[in-house]
Amino acid sequence: MNALNKIREFDQSIWLDFIRRKILINGELVKRIKEEDLRGVTSNPAIFEKAIGGSDDYDTTIRALALQGKSADDIYAELAVADVQHACDLFRPLYDSHDNSGDGYVSLEVGPNLINDTEGTIEEGLRFWKAVDRPNVMIKVPATLEGLPAIRKLISEGVNVNVTLIFGLERYEAVAEAYISGLEDRVKAGGAIDNINSVASFFLSRIDVLLDPVLEKMVEEGGEKAKLAEPLVGEVALASAKKAYQLYKGIFAGPRWEALKEKGANSQRLLWASTGNKNPKYDDLRYVDGLIGPETVNTIPVETLDLFREKGKVANTLETNLDQVDEVLNALPKLGIDLKERTQFLEEDGGKKFKEPFAKLIDSIEKKRVQALDLQPVEAEMQLGEYQQEVDAKIEEYKKSEFITGFWNKQADLWTQDAKGQESIRSYMGWLRVAETMIDEVGRLEQFAQEAKADGFTHVVVMGMGGSTMAPIVFEKSFPKGENGLDVLILDTTNPGTVQEIEKAVPLENTLFIVASKSGTTAEPLAFGDYFYEKVKAVKGDKAGENFIGITDPGSPFIETAKELGYRKVFLNFPEVGGRFSALTFFGLVPAALYGINVGELLARAVIMMRACGAYGPSDNNPGLQLGAALGVLSTKGRDKLTLVVPKSLSDLGLWLEQLLAESTGKEGKGILPVAGEHLGKPEVYGQDRVFVYVGYENEADEDNTQKLKTLQEAGHPVITIRMRDALDLGAEFFRWEAATAIAGAVLGINPFDQPNVQAAKTATDKIMKEVAEKGSLPEQEKALSEGGLDYYSSVSGSSAKELVQQFFAQAKAGDYVSIQAYLTESAAVNEETTELRQKIQDKLHVATTFGYGPRFLHSTGQYHKGGPNTGLFLQLTAGHPQDLPLPGRSYSFGTLQDAQAQGDLEALQSADRRTLHVHLGNDAAAGLKTLLAAF
After folding, report:
1. Quick one: pLDDT band at residue 884, thresholds 50, 70, 90?
2. Helix 236-251 crosses helix 322-334 at what angle (to 10 degrees)?
């Protein structure tokens, strides 16, 4: 047991006189709480100046806040509040414990410029109290004459107060009086006082720093004064503290205090402050070792804390040599030293010592704020040819009508005149400013990631569907793993082969599983969670929950399930943010943080784009408006196939864009179809329904794609080019595309925030699963043909596979597209064969092709397939499950569930009068695809 642990036996609490974002995130503060019995934190302007002005920990957040139009003072307040909130959360278990002894508090000081402003102190104290919004925050208020009424008022309002800058005994008594009077005021007003806590911070080392030179000079001069002065050197501060403690014992006793104590009042403990020794002649621990006693606090700087842990001498010293206390204090007047006058000087000087670093801090923030205002997002290069004039006209129309102002005000009639639809739109526009909210969560996200790493986790499996997994896929494929990141895998299919591959790829005991479901009722992630929970439980028993976290909305039924199973944590997302708009919420950023991505910078880039899109005032060059108007107008002109072209390093960006665009716009027979993964061809293989969008990097030439796009543009096809500076610009691009998609929806006259046709496939699947439960097998489908080990199901007919396939694709006409839907185990071989199939279709039919693994695409492009224009030919591919997996607590397997989803979606497509061909490839999907290719 070290000295920090042992001191608790004497009922003294050690608080840390230091705060910085780094120690909140890297586990240092948590370690001190757990291993060193640290019981609180104090902060002041000088501490924040060193933390914020003396490091780059906060630069990303400063930029993001500056771009929101915040002043330097506002930025400081937000940074300080965020750190104090984070620290409060780390101390919350101690605060909530039954024996907290008045500990678990974190202090935040009102601005030093308010030191002589009573009303200003009250106003800012209440503002900080509400902003931090934690019961274990203390608002620091200076013990000036103007501060005393503020202390009383804040206590009467139920605010915890740390009274700071106490140097003298008379002022200490006045502070205690202000506290007691505040409690009495609150009782008279009918308020509870049992949850109010306060400390009186008595500053020590500065007393000796001021008086010792005077006393030492007297000693040097000799004579009677020298004899009297010599024993006082280095003793005045300790004597003052010990005297204050005796006053404390008298103040918090007797009838007046007992009346309050009966109502639950807590005494205002003395807190020893300024305890770092500043005189090399003294023992560095004199203000710690010498003041140990019950019902007190000592707030200690880091260096002194570490020294005390190793060399501290723990004993009850606070009430030793009390006879000498009065001797020291009574001797001062005899030497001509007026202690009251001197401590008044220290109070005034203390205020200056806080004002100076605070001014320096604000100046540092201001410089960074001004620099941030010059930041701009990368521009999209629009080469729209004959459509440019009409797109420009639409942009001008929206500018004149103040469309963007209404957009940011969530003015739902921009999209629909239907009252119900407008209500739906307003309830799903939280994505507009969610990046601002998430900036405040960066520290906690990074801390969570650090803790996971420290606890031995090496892998993360994100389990979800649609919007809960698309952004994590993009992050994992587009970024290298961070220095302290974990390996991230994504599971978003019920295919048993893929589930088995994931299981084999990770060490179960050291893997963190994320069950991600907005509603908390999505079948697939719940099934994944149950399966892997059972697997981990077989290894870790009742501690299996330590390996699981959830991401869901408040009120979700999954929250209770996670609690019952002992999940490590549940992140509550935002109900007003739809799944496909959730890249910059917990759904995207929890996996990103665990992977080691700089989520703070990612969000800062998003805010840069928000600002350019008019979030904080008019913008002449609005990237979201420009892209959205272009996509909307081009779609109305028949250019409704957005063909995404990317370098290999951004290969999976299309998955995210597919869901965003297709699910948002594919309804009412309209829509923009994202086409990802096609190899660029010559102009003659494309119809007049294409718009090509290239997203790449400034420093990556990608000459082959660049040259082909130039040829396509010269042939009259619209081409849009976006070149990011680096992968962190994805934060900006997520927002650009979200805004553009919403604006394109307005151009098309549809509600981009609903998905009215998605339920059709789910309903059909549910019906099939009921039959499975009753009969033990899937309902039979009517087969059109069996040949070469493949089974064909379609309304078209043919005497051979070749003829049937040809008859099916003969239905294609200009403006159509072919959707290949693979309910298969994802593999390199399958990808290779389907890529060849797409190429053949494109070369032969000159129509767009899309490809997706099922059931992933059901939560993505599925809405467009049923609700968009009836221009699709749907080729569904299934295979057997020779190594199926049972689902815990269910009567069916993963394979049965995937087959039911395929069959349910096929029925939904057919109900929507879509052209379908289902080919069952047998047990070897890659071999079956080769056979199918031969028939094409």
Report:
1. very high
2. 120
Q: Sign of torsion, CA 51 53 59 61?
A: positive
Provide the terminal-to-terminal Cα distance of the chain, rounded to the nearest Å. Answer: 77
pLDDT at 278 over 80: no
Whole-angstrom distance, CA of residue 796 vs CA of residue 396? 49
Look up tokens 């501490």; give the residue: 47
User: Which helix (DSSP H) or strand (DSSP E) does residue 786 occupy?
Assistant: strand 785-787
Please answer whether residues 186 and 178 qualify as being in contact, where contact means their C-beta atoms are separated by less than 8 angstroms: no
Q: Check whether 863 has a pLDDT greater than 90.
A: yes
Q: What are phi and psi of 19, to 5 degrees?
A: -150, 145
Q: Helix (H, G, I), strand (E, B), or coil: what is residue 700?
A: coil
Burial of 763 (0-12, 13-18, 19+ CB in 10 A): middle
DSSP 234-298: TTHHHHHHHHHHHHHHHHT-HHHHHHHHTTTPPP-EEEEES-S---TTS-TTHHHHTT--TTEEE
| 569-572 sheet: strands from edge to edge | 487-491, 459-463, 511-516, 548-552, 569-572
Residue numbers annotated as active site: 140
Give CA–CA dist 582/540, Å, rounded. 33
- Sheet of 641-645: strand order equals 380-383, 719-724, 690-697, 641-645, 673-676
Amino acid residing at 432:
L
- The torsion of the CA quartet 366, 370, 372, 373, rounded to 10 degrees, works out to 140
Alpha-carbon distance values, 212 to 171, 242, 350 (Å): 22, 18, 18
* Helices vs. strands in the chain: H and E counts, helices first: 39, 24
Instruction: State the Cα–Cα distance between residues 363 and 646, nearest whole angstrom.
Output: 43
Residue 426: half-sphere exposure toward Cβ, Cα within 13 Å = 12
> CA–CA distance from 816 to each of 835, 871, 872 (Å)?
19, 5, 6
The pLDDT of residue 33 is 97
Chain mean pLDDT for the chain? 96
Half-sphere exposure of 363 (CA within 13 A, CB side): 6
pLDDT tens, position by position, 415-444: 999 999 999 999 999 999 999 999 999 999
Q: Which of 413, 416, 391, 417 is nearest to 402 (CA)?
A: 413
Distance between CA 722 and CA 729 in Å, rounded?
11
For the segment 593-626, what is each residue's pLDDT rounded down to a tens digit?
A: 999 999 999 999 999 999 999 999 999 899 999 9
Encoded tokens for 737 = 């595309």
The dihedral sign for the CA sequence 522, 527, 533, 536: negative
Using 50, 70 and 90 to split pLDDT, how confident is the model at 318?
very high
Q: Are 595 and 481 in contact (CB under 8 A)?
A: yes
Maximum alpha-carbon separation in the chain: 125
Cβ proximity of 61 and 116 under 8 Å: no
pLDDT at 277: 80
Q: What is the pTM of this model?
A: 0.92
Residue-wise pLDDT for 369-410, tens only, equals 999 999 999 999 999 999 999 999 999 999 999 999 999 999
Q: What is the per-residue pLDDT for 1?
A: 82
Contact 162, 199 (CB under 8 A): yes
pLDDT in tens, 160-202: 999 999 999 999 999 999 999 999 999 999 999 999 999 999 9
Q: Which of 237, 226, 103 is nearest to 167 (CA)?
A: 237
Q: What is d(CA 220, CA 208) in angstroms, rounded to the nearest whole number? A: 17
- Residues 237-260: tens digit of each pLDDT: 999 999 999 999 999 999 999 999
Task: Let me know how long the chain is.
Answer: 936
**pLDDT tens digits for 79-132?**
999 999 999 999 999 999 987 889 999 999 999 999 999 999 999 999 999 999
